[in-house]
Specification:
The complex is a heterodimer of chains A (116) and B (112). With 116 residues, chain A is mainly beta. Chain A has strands at residues 4-7, 10-13, 19-25, 31-38, 42-49, 56-57, 64-68, 74-78, 87-94, 106-107, 111-115. In chain B, strands 2, 5, 6, 10, 11 and 12 form a six-stranded mixed sheet that branches. Chain B has a four-stranded antiparallel sheet with strand order 3-9-8-7, with no helix packed on it. The chains are: A mainly beta (116), B mainly beta (112).
């Protein structure tokens, strides 16, 4: 199992450009998440998808959109990149089953994005 | 509302010394608690978790944590650290929703 994969690993954008960050998991998890990590700020939730077909805003959704393409894939789109979106982006997934007790998240390796 | 407070942003320690990373939480419902570790330039991985039962939880790499409901704490400990334990450590909780709450992280720096 590959776990959670993210592409690309690194990206440099100019202000105003758009891009999509891809995330896929092969663990048949129901829930998927996008976070950004900035120095001293910990992890901040951008969007999440509790199950296939649903998406919801997290703490910092402005400037982003998401698509839960199917159960495996959850993409994050920056329509018009800004320097404030320079960050490391992590995708995570979780079975999120109260019945099974499996609540931990599995994280991808991250995408390091710089917007100039 | 729920929250996680990691009391130290940075903890320097010498190799082979014991270490404790502190985590306090607040929640109006029962919670599940987690510690994750992030090595440089990597994603987070689970170190240990408390769901129920014994309040002392053992994890990977010799770490353990104790759930204290009365003090709403979940401190992480290791009796003897190695250089390879240098990393960022995150405490997290999950209450009644799909959204976990993370602390801001504690940077453990192990000196030779």
């Amino acid at each position: 199992n590959a776990g959670v994969t993210q592409t690309p690993k690194f990206q440099v954008l100019k202000t105003g450009q758009s891009m999509t960050l891809q995330c896929a998991q092969d663990m048949n998890h129901n829930s998927m998440y996008w976070y950004r990590q900035d120095p001293g700020m910990g992890l901040r939730l951008i969007y999440y998808s509790a199950s296939e077909g649903t998406t919801d805003k997290g703490e910092v959704p402005n400037g982003y959109n998401v698509s839960r393409l199917n159960k495996r894939e959850f993409s994050l789109r920056l329509e018009s990149a800004a320097p404030s979106q320079t960050s490391v982006y992590f995708c995570a997934s979780s079975e999120a089953s109260w019945a099974s007790g499996n609540h931990e998240q599995y994280f991808g390796p991250g995408t390091r994005l710089t917007v100039t | 509302a729920q929250s996680v407070t990691q009391l130290d942003s940075q903890v320097p320690v010498f190799e082979e010394a014991p270490v404790e990373l502190r985590c306090n939480y607040s929640s109006s419902v029962s919670v599940y608690l987690f510690w994750y570790v992030q090595y440089p330039n990597q994603g987070l991985q689970l170190l240990l978790k408390y769901l129920s039962g014994s309040t002392l939880v053992k994890g990977i790499n010799g770490f353990e944590a104790e759930f204290n409901k009365s003090q709403t704490s979940f401190h992480l400990r290791k009796p003897s650290v190695h250089i390879s334990d240098t990393a960022e450590y995150f405490c997290a909780l999950r209450g009644g929703s799909y959204i976990p709450t993370f602390g801001r992280g504690t940077s453990l720096i192990v000196h030779p």
